[in-house]
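Sequence in, structure out.
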Amino acid sequence: MRSERRPLSAETSEFARARVSAEQDLRVQQEHAARTVAEHARDADDLRGLLAMLGLEAGARV
């Protein structure tokens, strides 16, 4: 069965915008968290461990 693409409804479009906004907000929060951790970490190993505890990547932009 083949599904046809339908134009986005106003409700679907609003949901998509809200999702993009939430993803952007999450990235900003993660960047702030990584920056705060980096400021307080004792060394590189400490930084990697703390970031891992928060579910953040050590190579993430800070």
